[in-house]
Structures are given as C-alpha cells and as structure tokens.
TrEMBL record, chain A:
Organism of this sequence: Phyllobacterium bourgognense
UniProt entry keywords in alphabetical sequence: Molybdenum, Oxidoreductase
Domain of life: Bacteria
Residue span, Aldehyde oxidase/xanthine dehydrogenase a/b hammerhead domain: 53-168
Source taxonomy: Bacteria, Pseudomonadati, Pseudomonadota, Alphaproteobacteria, Hyphomicrobiales
Protein name: Xanthine dehydrogenase YagR molybdenum-binding subunit
UniProt GO molecular function: iron ion binding; oxidoreductase activity
Keyword Phosphoprotein: no
PANTHER family linked to this entry: ALDEHYDE OXIDASE 1-RELATED, XANTHINE DEHYDROGENASE
TrEMBL record, chain B:
Chain segments annotated as transmembrane: none
Highest rank taxon of the organism: Bacteria
Pfam families per record: CO_deh_flav_C (PF03450), FAD_binding_5 (PF00941)
Matches recorded under InterPro entries: CO_DH_flav_C (IPR005107), CO_DH_flav_C_dom_sf (IPR036683), Diverse_Substr_Oxidored (IPR051312), FAD-bd_PCMH (IPR016166), FAD-bd_PCMH-like_sf (IPR036318), FAD-bd_PCMH_sub1 (IPR016167), FAD-bd_PCMH_sub2 (IPR016169), Mopterin_DH_FAD-bd (IPR002346)
Gene3D superfamilies in the record: 3.30.465.10, CO dehydrogenase flavoprotein, C-terminal domain (3.30.390.50), Uridine Diphospho-n-acetylenolpyruvylglucosamine Reductase, domain 2 (3.30.43.10)
Domain FAD-binding PCMH-type: 1-221
Name of the featured protein: Xanthine dehydrogenase YagS FAD-binding subunit
Any one GO molecular function term: oxidoreductase activity
Protein keywords: FAD, Flavoprotein
Length: 774, 328
C-alpha cells in the first residue's frame, strides 16, 4: 500500500462521516435480522454425508483418461544459480513423459499479486516460475517430472542432477534488522500511528510493562495437500484445483498463458482446508504448462514436504509491547512495534499491530511495524494473520500489568473498553466485548481462579487459569456477483463462484436464501466452486459469508423488481414498488398490507414464464469505512503444569464471542473450536524450524512439526452474544479467523497463573517453563 | 523412492539367506523403513518381508517371556503375560507412536528403527555422518533439541527413538539372532552401539543376521515398575526424556533396581551407575540425586538440549520417589 492509498482511504472516511448513516448500504438494518426462519437454525452441512462416506470428490480425486502424474524438485540451496542441469537419466527412466526445467518451461510473466488494489488477484510471489537459472530461496521449484505413475515420477525426479553456484544469502532475522523497512501502510491501515507522546507517557505512568515477545514462523498444514488436476482441450484449459481463490486462479492462468478468461475454467467444489495457504502458487502454473507441453492431463499433488518448501507460512515476529496505566488502571500509553519478515517479492504482510489499534482506549499510542528482507519462500496469510500473534503479545502484556497492579485482568480490560474506535474515532457498529467477558467468566467459573500464581495444586501439577481478548475486523468484499434463478415449480438456484473450504458456505447461504426469498430451505440449491459461475473474490479475511450475503441481498432486490414488472397491473400487488414489498411465503407481499400478496407461481404462470433469472453484485462495502466494525472474543483457559517436567496439559477452554448474528450454530461452533485448537498449536507446539545457517526449513513433516494431537485438545466450550450488527447483512460478521486469536495469550497467562513463569516466546515448551521451576 | 523388488521369507533360514545379499533389507511393519525409502534415506534394491516369521508370545521354561520377532507392538502391549509380569514394557509400547503405527510395527523392527534426527532425514539439504560417513554433521550446530546428551560423539549426536527398547533395556532382554544354522543371543545393552567414528553402524548385527525373537527373563520388578515419558505434546511425539525403572525393596532399603533412559542417548541407555549407586542403599531424595549425578557426570549438553540434564534428574527422581514411596 502507498501513501496515495492512505490519503484516498482517509478522504473516503472523512466524506462518509458527513453522510447520514441511513443513506449508506447497510445503514438501514437488514430486515432479516428481525424476520428470520432458517437463519440461526442448527443445520448440518449439506456436504457432510458425502464427505464422511467418501463420496466427496476433491481436486486430487478427479479421474481422467490418460492422466499423468507430476513430481517437483526443489532447490536445496538458498541463493545462487544453477550451473549444470542434467536430466537425461530422468528422461530415460521408465514411464517418464516429460521433464520440465527452466530450459523448456514456456516463457511466462508474473502473476497479479494479492492486494488491496486488485481484488481479482491471488498471487503470492512476484518471482518468476522456472524461467531461469537463478535461485531466490531454499525450496524454490527447479524441475518437474511427469510420468505415467506417481512412483515413476518420484523416482525419475531423484535422477535429475543439478549443480549450483551458491551465493551468500540473507537468512538471519537479527542481522536483517538494520536494513528493515517501515511501509507506509499495512493492508488498509496506515502503518505508523503516533498519538500523543507514548514513550513519555510510559515513563511517567504509575504502572507499566515493557517487553519483547517472540513468535516463530508457522507452516500451513491443511489436511488436504495442495493439488491440481489439469486438462487442456484445444485452446481451453480445465483445472480441478484445491483453491480458496477460484476466479483469481482462472484469471491468473488466463493472463500467464495469454488466454481469454472464458478459455480457462477452474473447478473447486470442495477444499480440504485453506486457512490462507491455498491461493495461487507455482504448482498451478507448472501443472498447466506441463499439461500443455505433454499434451496430456496432469495431476500434481504436492507432497507434505513440498508444501513446506514452496507454500509460504506465517512470518516469525519480534514484538515490543509496552502498556502504561494511571493509578486507576486507565491506559495512558500503548506501544506496539516490531519486526516480521516480508521479502520484496511477497505480497502478504503479517499485520500484528492492527488488532491493537481497535481494542483499548489509551491516552497515547505509538505503533509501527517493520519488515525484514530475508531470502525465504514468500510468507503468506495464515488464519488471523496479525491478530493471531499480535494478541499474544498485547494480551500477555495486559495480564502482566494487571498482576503488577493487583487487579483482576478482566477488570483491567473492562476499565479500558473503548466507546469508539481508539484511533479513527469512528462509531462502533456493534461492540459487546464487556458482555462477552462477563458471560464467559460466569460460565467458565473465573471466580475459582486464585490471583496468586502457583496457589492451586493437584499432586505434582500446578493448576492455572488465564484469559485474553481476541478480535478480528469485519470485512465485506466488493465485486461479489451472483445469479438467482427462480423457477415456476417453487425452487430457486443461487450461483456464484464462491469457495467451500469446509466452513459450510453453501449450507449457510442456502439457509439465508430461503429466508431472503421467502422459500423453504429444501427449495434452494446453492451452486459454487466453479469459475464459470458469476465472479466472486477469494475466500479470505473472514469475509466470504458477509460478502456473499450482500450479493444475495442485491440479487433478491433485482428479483423483486423483475417479479413486480412481470406481475403487471392485474395483480394484488400492482403498483407497489420494491421498497414496499417483501418476498415471503413463496411470493411477494406488501409490507403495509400483507393481504396484498401474489405467489411466485401465479406471477410466473400469468407471464408464461418457467423461470426468472437475475444477476446482481453486492453493493460497495461502504459500511466498513463509515463504522468501526470489529468482532471480539474473550478466551478462557485452565491448564496444569507438571512440577517435575514442566509439561503443560490444557484441561479446558472456553471461547465467548461477539460476532453479530450467528447464522448456523453448528457450523459456527465448529469454526470457533477449530480456530481455538489451532490457537493451542500456536501456543504450545507449532514452530517452523528455519535453520538460519542454510535458510532451509528442517521440520517439513507432520511428524516433526507438531500440531496438537487429539490428546492435546481438551473440552472446548463456545458461547456467543449473538447481538446483531445493524450495519452488516443479516447482522453477521465473519467468524472464520477470530477463534485462533487470543488463545496463545490465554494459555500463556494461565501458565503464569499456574507457575509464576511468564513465557514471552512461543511456543511455550516445557524447557521454557522448567527453567523457572525450582 | 527408487525401484525395488519384494519377496517374502517363510522361515528364518530363508530370511537369512536373502538378508546376506547386497541391497537386501528385512521388512517388518514398514513404519520406519518405508518412510525412509520415500525420503531416499534408505535405498534397498530388495525388501525381504519377514512378517511371516514367528509372532508368538509365550512363556519360557524359566518363567520369562519369549516374543516372536514379527509380533506387532500392539499385540505385545496387550498380552496378559506382558501386562502382568512386565507392565513397564506394556506402558512403554503404548507411550510410543500412534495406535495405527503400533498395529503395524513389529518388535524386531522397533529394535532396528533409526533415529528421527531431522538432518539425517534430509537427504537433499543436510550433511549427516550416519547417512554418509565422513560428510559431516549439521545437527551439532543446528536444531538439537531432540538429540543426545550422553554417549554421543562429535560425528553424531542422534538419539535412538524407541520407547519399547528403553523398557527392554531395563528388563535385561536378550535378542535371539539367527545366522547360518546357528542362533546366538545378544543382551540388549550390547545390541546397539555407540556412534564414535562410525555412526552408520548402529547395531552389532552382521550380514545375514535375522532377529527371530526377544526373550525377557524373569523379573522381580513388576510390582514396582514404571515407564514415564516426557514429551512436547501429549501423544505422537518422541521422548525428550523417558525413564524405565523397576525396584525391589527390603524394608526401607533398595534391594535391587533397574533403570534405563530414553531420548538422551544414541542407544537405549541402561543407567548402570544409577543402579550401582542405589542398590543396597536408602530410597531418599539425596540418594536419587547423587545417583543421577553420577550417571550424567559425563553428559555433553548442546545449545538446544542442555535442559535435558535437569529434566532427566527430575524425572528419574519423581519416578523413583513414586516407586518407593510406601516403603519410605
């Protein structure tokens, strides 16, 4: 982002401030907040039976005649140049169809990068894909082998001989600091925030903490490996892809291979987990190129090792957080600065300070992030980029301050609850963190907590309780297009190239469309996962549900207008305008006089129509600029720490969420719990072992990179305020990412409560705790 | 993975005759060997499947237990003879891997499994003297949290990853090995070697050797025995430190004792010094501490694993305190 962008966004915000809120999209609360039937109901995933019975077909499952199989070869060096590349033995190996290297890879440009300026882009790397001998990072793809079977391809790949000239590489986090850069903005926010004199306020504060917090790199480990099955048919190409960016993938392939958009089709009806890692990377490009060169359909499933080597993860960070408070516990200073890695060819910052800008009021703020340029696989977004690790630092510090003050940490937080956005001054559209805390504390039994660390014991185990705040902003994406086909038989089909990564997208939008169109749930089908359908942006930023809902609203409005036109003058609803009716009971009714009603069937029969089809796109998401729209959470954790070994075992967790309307309690609870489990990994086990001597990731497997095992995951309780947000479609805000936020701090704070040891360096492994236990 | 052939041996003799050939490797459950083949760490030209060899678990004439080489780990852990006479072994097996892996893995394969050193596993990017003698060791200056603090060598600091073998070491198990019409018996403490200059040579087995069974002698320790494993997550993680221990008491005195450590050495580490120090003495905290000090006096900690010295002491002390608690 640039200074120009900062200025534009700032201007938009200023202008919008003058506009009465009811003029804005979402300014009048969505009527479905009050009037709903299917929304808010517990509903099982529509794709659940197919998944659990093995019928669901993922990108790597698609059968094709003449399919060939690809294996990738990665650079074992970090910077340098290929000096010799000998592929003769591989080409001669049994079953080999094609060996592709920079020698014969088609000459291609660079993909459009993910970013705020181009929502139709999903590229993660500005580096060329196998276009030359230069090596930019350890793990870069240098060759691909295509063969009749996967085993033949794997074997032949081992026969390729490559010599490299090794150049010096930037691999040290510490050494890169002097050359760090501070960008003008981080995502859509101005990077540097300076309100008052935070250092001075900190110095004179009655109570203060000032610490460095460290979080390691993390790798994506969606259980479904990245996979793509590609087939060319003449000059059109079809990709079955595991992607959370369907339209963007299609347009990137079209741009790279000089095709028209309609010559590329991407199918991705089901994805086995995305979390930010399944946008656009080298493997799709390589598979499409290989299928073209070999004139064969190609399947490329990344090995788990390949995912670590060529799909970026969450950047490590070093964060300074300082909080100063006056005698009453009111914050007078919040400082949040730090470093994360982002090479110039990466597109995704790690915005760990963004959450800090919205969570507490303070007399002064000093916030700035700096990027380090290291030679790594381009880092990317991972579930709650920024907030996941930013809340670890901030909420650890707040807990520490509460302990210094002898205050309950919930009480300290509630004393600093902002009435409006602490930085922008914008009004919160809806904000009930206080209620989330109070509800959560009561249900969790927070009053059982002993404030004095180490006070509770059970044999060799010390018991501790901790809590922390989480948060995530509301985002609704522009550019969501939708098609609604209403049929005379009373059914409707909604179509959109949206993504289903296991969240229950189709399920929830089916519930929504039923209420929006006044139809029973069984009458709705929701079609997604296909780039041939109306264009939607990638699923990211917890935005898809709100964005799709906005488009369904726009579609329903268009449908209403079209039906009123068809109804004509001989209808009980003749003369009514769109704003004066609602779709209900399988027809249109006057809002003022519900007896003025005509069914869809009747309207369409009279007009001799079998179907009415409309297309629409969601309104511009101006509500995001007019209001401060943030979800928040209160996470509670009880755990035990062994006095003997320092081992930490979490006994129970509770998440209390304030995220607006909950559209489907079942799928929502799964999202929250899944996020919290991922938070446990962040807190206790996950760490990419990046060997700074070589620039190589050393634990590129699920055996060596520890995600929580079943036994590590305790009972998790999830509750929510359910208070609708009057400024968003359905009153809902996204829930995909907030679950992970706050968890690491809640765990760290519970460890402190159990032992008196403050761990500021993730993951909290037993040695870090043990060193402090006598 | 490179192309290989596969054959099944129906007897120890047949297995031995094939095992002696170049490039042939014996295949048990495949839970380690096949993984290493996929990573091109192991490059056998022929796999000789020995799972048809005995998998029986029987009482011996002396009152011990004889476990066939092909017995699955889960079968051993669940067997009534093992559970009642050697509960430590049952617990050790159940502390390892996952249920699915234990169902596949054989006891002989467990003895033969190789280190999980991340540099050993990284053919493309790392130097390793175990994989390629003389090439160097990237673990010494790298990530060595899981590496050895005792018994290692500058050439190799890898640990033996087994839980089962730690209990077997404490129980004085004997490995029955067949070769050329003869069977010899190797005490488990002599079965695995020290890395010294040849970390690639991990056991005393010679070409053509086939493990046929594992014998566990009568043990008086069942009533007071334990296996405690300390790890980074609650399940499916290798030991940072593990302790197998068995004690017999004569009033307040330790009559006899067996202790072995896992996770800290290149082999299942029988703690003879601990045993010597405690045998015939009082079961006191001071005695435990002195004993483990004696054992770890020669420990060589590295940047990533120095915590294991304290952790080993604490864990052993806690285990022995629990085992002797009612007698003190």
């Amino acid at each position: 982002m640039s200074n120009v962008q900062n200025a534009v966004i700032g201007t938009v915000r200023t202008v919008l401030g003058w506009v009465p809120s009811q003029w804005l999209p979402g300014g009048t609360p969505d009527p479905l907040i009050e009037r709903r039937a299917a929304i808010g109901q517990q509903a099982s995933r529509l794709d659940g039976p197919a998944k659990v019975s093995g019928q669901a077909r993922f990108a790597a499952d698609v059968a094709m005649a003449g399919l060939s199989y690809a294996t990738l070869v990665h650079s074992p060096i970090t910077r340098g140049r290929i000096t010799k590349l000998e592929s003769g033995a591989a080409e001669a190996a049994p079953g080999v169809i094609l060996v592709m290297t920079y020698h014969n890879m088609p000459r291609l440009g660079i993909v459009p990068m993910i970013g705020g300026t181009n929502l139709s882009a999903a590229g993660n790397s500005a580096l060329p894909t196998m276009q030359g001998p230069d090596i930019w990072y350890n793990g870069q793809v240098v060759a691909m082998v295509l063969a009749e079977t996967q085993e033949q391809a794997d074997y032949a790949a081992s026969l390729i001989e490559i010599d490299y000239r090794e150049d010096s590489a930037k691999t040290s986090f510490e050494n890169a600091k002097p050359d760090s850069r501070a960008p003008a903005s981080v995502l859509f926010e101005k990077n540097h925030v300076s309100i008052g004199n935070a250092e001075q306020e900190l110095n004179r504060a009655a109570f203060k903490v000032d610490n460095i917090y460290r979080t390691p790199g993390h790798n994506h480990n969606a259980i479904e490996l990245h996979a793509v099955t590609v087939a060319w048919d003449g000059d059109t190409v079809l990709l079955h892809d595991a992607t959370q960016a369907i339209s963007a993938t299609a347009s990137a392939i079209a741009k790279l291979f000089n095709l028209k958009n309609e010559q590329v089709r991407v199918l991705s009806p089901l994805v086995g987990g995305g979390f930010g890692g399944k946008a656009f990377w080298d493997h799709q490009i390589i598979a499409v190129a290989a299928a073209k060169l070999a004139a064969r359909p190609v399947r490329l499933i990344l090995s788990r090792d390949s995912v670590y080597r060529m799909i970026g993860g969450r950047s490590p960070s070093e964060q300074r957080v300082a909080v100063g408070a006056d005698a009453e516990g009111k914050f007078t200073s919040i400082i949040h600065t730090g470093y994360s890695i982002m090479p110039p060819y990466a597109a995704c910052p790690e915005p760990y300070t963004l959450g800090t800008r919205a969570i507490y009021k303070s007399k002064s703020f000093e916030i700035i992030q700096r990027y380090l340029d290291l030679d790594i696989v381009p880092n990317t977004f991972m579930r709650a980029p920024g907030e996941a690790i930013g809340t670890f630092a901030l909420e650890n510090a707040v807990d520490e301050l509460a302990h210094e003050m002898g205050l309950d940490p919930i009480e300290l937080r509630l004393r600093n609850e902002p009435e409006k956005h602490p930085i922008s001054g914008a009004t919160f559209s809806q904000h009930a963190t206080r209620q989330a805390y109070l509800d959560g504390a009561e249900r969790f039994g927070w009053e059982q907590r002993e404030a004095r660390p180490g006070a509770r014991r059970d044999g060799e185990w010390r018991i501790g309780m901790g809590c922390a705040s989480g948060g995530f902003p509301y985002v609704r994406m522009p550019g969501v297009n939708i098609r609604i086909e209403l049929r005379r038989d009373g059914s409707a089909k909604i179509s959109c190239s949206a993504q289903e990564m296991g969240m229950g997208t189709a399920t929830v939008q089916t519930q929504h469309a039923a209420d929006r169109l006044g139809l029973p749930v069984e009458a709705i089908s929701f079609e997604l996962g296909d780039s041939a359908l109306p264009v939607a942006p990638m699923a990211g930023g917890s935005s898809q549900t709100a964005s799709l809902s906005g488009a369904v609203i726009a579609g329903a409005e268009r449908l209403t207008i079209e039906l009123l036109r068809l109804a004509g003058n001989d209808s009980p609803i003749a003369g009514l305008r769109a704003g004066e009716v609602q779709l209900a009971k399988e027809g249109i009714a006057s809002l003022d006089d519900p007896s003025r009603y005509e069914s869809f069937r009747s309207i369409m029969a009279r007009a001799s129509r079998d179907e009415v089809t409309v297309t629409a796109s969601g309104s511009p998401p101006l509500e995001m600029f007019k209001f401060a729209m943030h979800s928040s959470s209160a996470i509670f954790c009880q755990l035990r720490v062994s006095d003997v070994t320092g081992e930490i075992r979490v006994d129970r967790m509770l998440g209390s969420f304030d995220c607006g309307t909950i559209l489907n309690p079942k799928t929502a609870a799964s999202q929250f719990k899944g996020g919290m489990i991922m938070g446990l990994g962040l807190a206790l086990t996950e760490e990419t072992l990046f060997d700074e001597r070589s620039g190589r990731i050393m634990n590129a497997s699920l055996a060596d990179y520890h995600v929580p095992s079943h036994l590590d995951v305790p009972e998790i309780d999830v509750i929510w305020t359910g208070i609708p947000d009057p400024r968003s479609p359905l009153g809902a805000r996204g829930i995909g990412e907030i679950g992970i936020t706050g968890v690491a701090a809640a765990v760290a704070n519970a460890v402190f409560n159990a032992t008196g040891t403050r761990v500021r360096d993730l993951p909290i492994t037993l040695d870090k705790v043990l060193s402090e236990i006598p | 993975m490179i192309p290989f052939t596969y054959t099944r041996a129906s007897s120890a003799d047949e297995a031995a005759s094939m095992a002696i050939r170049t490039g042939h490797k014996l295949l048990g459950g495949g839970t380690n060997l096949v993984d290493l083949m996929r990573k091109n760490v192991e490059l056998p030209s022929c796999l000789v499947d020995v799972t048809a060899l005995s998998d029986s678990i029987k009482e011996t004439q002396e009152g011990g237990v004889m476990i066939g080489a092909a017995a699955r780990n889960s079968a051993v852990a669940a067997h009534p003879l093992v559970r009642t006479r050697y509960p430590m072994l049952s617990r050790a097996i159940l502390a390892g891997a996952s249920a699915q892996i234990r169902n596949m893995a054989t006891v002989a394969g467990n003895l033969m499994q190789r280190t999980r050193c991340i540099y050993f596993n990284d053919v493309a990017g790392s130097r390793c003297n175990k994989r390629s003698p003389g090439s160097g060791c990237d673990a010494v200056g790298g990530f060595n949290r899981y590496h050895a603090i005792i018994g290692a060598a500058p050439a190799c600091i890898a640990t033996h990853p087994s839980d089962m073998c730690v209990a077997l070491a404490a129980l004085d198990a004997r490995i029955h090995v067949y070769n050329k019409n003869a069977t010899r018996i190797i005490p488990i403490v002599d079965f695995h070697g020290f890395p010294a200059d040849r970390p690639d040579l991990e056991t005393v087995l010679e070409a053509g050797d086939v493990i046929t069974s594992i014998e566990i002698p009568v043990s008086p320790f069942a009533a007071r025995s334990a296996y405690r494993k300390v790890r980074d997550r609650a399940s499916y993680a290798f030991a940072l430190v593990s302790v197998a221990a068995g004690v017999t008491m004569r009033e307040r005195t330790i009559d006899d004792i067996r202790v072995a450590f896992g996770g800290i050495a290149p082999k299942p580490w029988r703690a003879f010094r601990v045993e010597m120090a405690l045998r015939g003495g009082p079961a006191t905290q001071e005695a435990f501490d002195d004993a483990v000090e004696a054992e770890l006096a020669r420990a060589v900690p590295l940047a990533g694993n120095a915590f294991k010295i304290g952790l080993t002491k604490r864990t052993l002390s806690a285990v022995l305190t629990e085992l002797t608690g009612d007698a003190r």
